[in-house]
Amino acid sequence: MNDAMIMLKKTSRTFYIPINRLKEGLKEAVASAYLCMRAIDEIEDHEIIADDLKVKLLLGIHDIFQSTDVIAGTQKLMAPYSKVLPAVTLQLDEWAQLCPPSVAEVVYRYIAMMAKQMADWVHESWNIRTEDDLDRYTYSVAGMVGEMLSEIWFWYDGTKTDKIKAVAFGRGLQAVNILRNRTEDLERGVDFFPDGWGPKEMIQYTRRNLKLADAYIVELKGGPALDFCKIPLTLAHATVNLIAAGGNKLTRDAVMKLVNSIN
What we know:
- The chain is mainly alpha-helical.
- It has two domains: about 1-105, no CATH class; about 125-263, Farnesyl Diphosphate Synthase (Orthogonal Bundle).
- It has helices at about 1-10, 15-20, 25-45, 50-65, 70-80, 85-90, 90-100, 100-125, 130-155, 165-180, 180-185, 200-220, 225-245, 250-260.
- Helix 3 packs parallel to helix 8 (about 100-125).
- The radius of gyration is 18 Å and the shape is globular.
- The two termini are about 25 Å apart.
């Protein structure tokens, strides 16, 4: 768990804080899920690896996380690429082991789904032409995370959630990332904006999903699920407002002030 929290702090200041505040059991489940998904996201976004290798690795992860021996299978798959893959990806087996056995089926199922859909997007060269395409992509890499978290909340304490709004929660956070990373994505030859869209349309799309995310957390009515979701959602709203005003990224001080202002 200590290694996981160190890696979380290195890879996501947005999610490190709410995950670190979770109680034992739930903390391991969400940390495991986040780091596993971050591990495969690093494959999809890798700047050097050829697309055919990305597809091979992602489909391999899809198959392994549906198998009976996730740990050994993951180790064997990653071993030949130890010099090119980042540490968070090479330690995928460790993050998988962190997950409590009673919820591992849920987490592993979503990791397999995400890996398969990411492989499809790599194969298609992230061809996003319409808003429907964008919806499919943001579901693949983030909307299903909202779905998975809904299942984790129910596993932990019986909390029931609206899965459509849960998808919008993840989709809205991903849309913020798309806005924030626009320049870097274009430099690597990937355009997540549908045809004819500029920042104005993407901001509207983002805010529409974040509005549903607001409704999602209102229905949580307290408990660890609400405590977890409030932080990234607050930061997402602040970031999209900053981008709309011509900025790009919240400073560390701004992040801490916002986190400390959340009740």
